[in-house]
Specification:
Elements lengths: L1 H10 L23 E10 L2 E15 L5 E12 L8 E5 L8 H8 L2 E3 L14 E3 L9 E6 L7 E2 L11 H18 L7 E7 H16 L6 E7 L15 H16 L10 H22 L5 H15 L3 H6 L6 H7 L6 E3 L7 E3 L12 H20 L22 H5 L5 H10 L4 E7 L7 H9 L5 H4 L2 E6 L9 H19 L2
Parallel strand pairs: 4-7, 4-9, 9-10, 10-13, 13-14
Antiparallel strand pairs: 1-2, 2-3, 3-7, 3-8, 5-6, 11-12
Keywords: Carboxypeptidase, Glycoprotein, Hydrolase, Protease, Signal
Organism: Pleionea mediterranea
Protein name: Carboxypeptidase C (Cathepsin A)
Length: 497
C-alpha cells in the first residue's frame, strides 16, 4: 500500500486531505442536482457540428439508494444525432485530478492555446475552437470523480466512500450507469477514455461494469497508461523492471537534449538500440546482481553511459541502476537545470538540482496556469455554470487513498483488463504513449501488455501509438493532430462488424 501512495504523491504533487464528513461543500443541506444546457457549434474536419453542452451535477447513490455525493460533469452531445451514435466517458487521473486536461487539451470542442511545441505562452491565456476534437466521432461526457472539480461527498456519504481504488471504480461506474439510464443511451456504442491513473480506472470499470452490471464497452482509450505500478517502482536489489523499462525513455530524453553526441540520426533509432540493450545485456546484468563479473559490469556501465548521457563513474557509483529522480536532476546538472517528469523536454533552473523537497516539475508548472485560467473562464462565460466552490484542478480534494483492494491484485489492474477483454472479445483498446513521459514510460506499458497472457485474437484488438512529447502528448500541436488521426482510425476499428 505504501508503495502506491508514494507513487501517487510523486505523480501529482500538492495533494491535501480534509477529514470533514461532507468534504468542503459550502451548502447546507446537501445541494440539489443542477444542470445547465447551452447550444454551440464547432467546425471539425471541415464540417460544422451543432451540439448541446450540459454542465451539471449528478447524485451518486449507495446500494441502499441513499445519496452519498455528487459528481460534476460536462457532456457534449451532437444535435439531431441518430440513436446509435457512440458515447465516450472521459476522465483524468491522479487520483485527484479533474478531467480538465483531456477536456480542454484534446477531446472537447474547446482547447487551451499553447506554444506549438506545448510550452507555456504569455498570460493571459485563451481557449479556441478545437478542430481536433473527437466530437465528430462520439458524444463525450467528462467526469470529475468526487474530490476533484466541483464533485463532493455529502448526504450519507463521506470521503471514504470514494477515495480508494475500488471505491472510485464503483462510484464512477454508478455515475455512468445513471447517465445511461437518464439519457436513454443504453443502446449506444460505449467507450471509456482515461489518462494516467484514469487508465487504471478504465480497466477496473470495464471489468466491474461487465461483470456486475452487464455493460460491455466497444472500446477503451488509454492515454499515458499505467496499469501496473510495480513496474515503475525502484527497489534496489529487488525490482529490476523499473530501470529496464525506463531506459528507452532516458535515451529518448538524452537524444532530445543533445547529450548523446552524433551517435544516432533519429530518436527512433536511439530508442530501438536502447530497447535491445535493455532486454538483453542490461537485464542479464541486473539479474546477476553482485555475481556480475567486473569485466561485464564495466562494459554495461559504458553502454549505459552511451545511451543515457550520464557519466560512467556516476553509473558505476549507483550500481548500474539510475532511478528517475537521479536522471532528471543529473542529465543537465552542469548547467544548473533539471528536467520535467510529465514531459522531459521541459527544463527549469534550480539552485540545488538535487534538493528533492524543492523540486517542481517544470512540465506541470507550464500547463497548470493556462488550463486553470481558461477552464474557469469557459465554465462561467460559455457553459453558464456558476458555483462558489473551489474547483479542484489537481489535488486539494483528495489525499488519503485506500489501496488495500488494489494490493489484492498485486498492484496490477491489467489482470482486470484481460478479464474484461476475455468476457467481451470484441472490445478494442487504444494505447497512446509519449516518448518523453517519465511518469508512465512507454516501454513499461509495452512490457505490461506483452505479459497479459492474451490469446492472439485479443492481442490484435490492441492499437499502440507513439508521440514525440510527454504525458499530455496533445499539448504539442503536431501530436494533437496525430492523436486525432489515430483516434479516427480507432473508432472506425472499434465500430466495424
Amino acid at each position: 500500500m505504501k508503495h502506491l501512495l508514494l507513487i501517487v504523491t510523486l505523480l501529482f504533487v500538492g495533494l491535501s486531505y480534509s477529514n470533514d464528513k461532507k468534504g468542503d461543500n459550502i451548502n447546507d443541506p446537501f445541494p440539489k442536482e443542477k444542470v445547465v444546457k447551452t447550444e454551440h457549434s464547432v467546425e471539425i474536419n471541415g464540417r460544422d457540428i451543432d451540439y448541446t453542452a450540459t454542465a451539471g451535477t449528478s447524485f451518486v447513490f449507495n446500494k441502499k439508494h441513499e445519496k452519498i455525493g455528487n459528481i460534476y460533469y460536462t457532456a457534449y452531445t451532437k444535435d439531431d444525432a441518430k440513436s446509435d451514435r457512440p458515447i465516450t466517458f472521459a476522465y483524468n487521473g491522479g487520483p485527484g485530478s479533474a478531467s480538465v486536461w483531456l477536456h480542454m487539451g484534446t477531446f472537447g470542442p474547446k482547447r487551451v492555446v499553447m506554444d506549438k511545441e506545448g510550452f507555456m505562452p504569455t498570460p493571459p491565456y485563451q481557449a479556441v475552437d478545437n478542430q481536433y476534437s473527437i466530437l465528430d466521432l462520439t458524444d463525450i461526457v467528462f467526469i470529475d470523480p468526487v474530490g476533484t472539480g466541483y464533485s463532493r461527498a455529502g448526504g450519507k456519504g463521506t470521503n471514504k466512500d470514494f477515495h480508494g481504488t475500488w471505491e472510485d471504480i464503483e462510484t464512477v461506474s454508478e455515475f455512468i450507469r445513471l447517465y445511461l439510464t437518464r439519457n436513454n443511451r443504453w443502446s449506444s456504442p460505449k467507450f471509456l477514455a482515461g489518462e494516467s491513473y484514469g487508465t487504471l480506472r478504465s480497466a477496473g470499470i470495464a471489468y466491474h461494469m461487465g461483470q456486475n452490471l452487464g455493460v460491455n464497452f466497444n472500446g477503451i482509450v488509454l492515454i499515458s497508461s499505467v496499469l501496473n505500478y510495480t513496474l515503475d517502482e525502484f527497489d534496489h536489489g529487488v525490482n529490476i523492471q523499473a530501470p529496464i523499462t525506463l531506459l528507452p525513455t532516458y535515451t529518448a530524453t538524452a537524444f532530445y537534449h543533445k547529450q548523446l553526441g552524433n551517435r544516432f540520426s533519429s530518436v527512433d533509432e536511439a530508442i530501438n538500440e536502447a530497447k535491445i540493450f535493455a532486454m538483453n545485456d542490461y537485464a542479464l546484468a541486473l539479474l546477476q546482481g553482485d555475481n556480475l563479473s567486473e569485466e561485464k559490469r564495466q562494459s554495461v556501465a559504458t553502454k549505459l553511459s552511451e545511451l543515457t548521457g550520464l557519466s560512467k563513474d556516476f553509473i558505476l557509483l549507483n550500481n548500474l541502476i539510475i532511478d528517475m529522480g537521479q536522471f532528471v536532476h543529473n542529465l543537465r546538472r552542469d548547467e544548473g537545470l533539471t528536467l520535467g517528469r510529465l514531459d522531459s523536454r521541459f527544463v527549469t533552473e534550480e539552485v540545488d538540482a538535487m534538493e528533492q523537497p524543492g523540486y517542481r516539475d517544470p512540465s506541470y508548472m507550464a500547463i497548470h496556469g493556462p488550463y486553470t485560467e481558461t477552464l474557469m473562464d469557459y465554465m462561467r462565460s460559455e457553459l453558464k455554470f456558476e458555483s462558489d466552490l473551489v474547483y479542484h484542478i489537481l489535488g486539494g480534494g483528495v489525499g488519503s487513498w485506500n489501496t488495500k483492494d488494489l494490493a489484492r491484485d498485486s498492484f496490477d489492474m491489467s489482470r482486470k483488463l484481460r478479464h474484461a477483454m476475455l468476457r467481451n472479445p470484441s472490445m478494442k483498446v487504444f494505447v497512446a504513449n509519449g516518448y518523453y513521459d517519465m511518469a508512465t514510460p512507454f516501454f513499461s506499458t509495452e512490457y505490461n501488455f506483452s505479459h497479459m497472457g492474451l490469446p492472439k485474437s485479443l492481442q490484435d484488438n490492441i492499437m499502440m501509438t507513439y508521440y514525440e512529447s510527454g504525458h499530455m502528448m496533445y499539448i504539442r500541436k503536431p501530436d494533437l493532430i496525430k492523436l486525432k488521426q489515430d483516434l479516427n482510425d480507432f473508432y472506425q476499428f472499434s465500430l466495424s462488424k
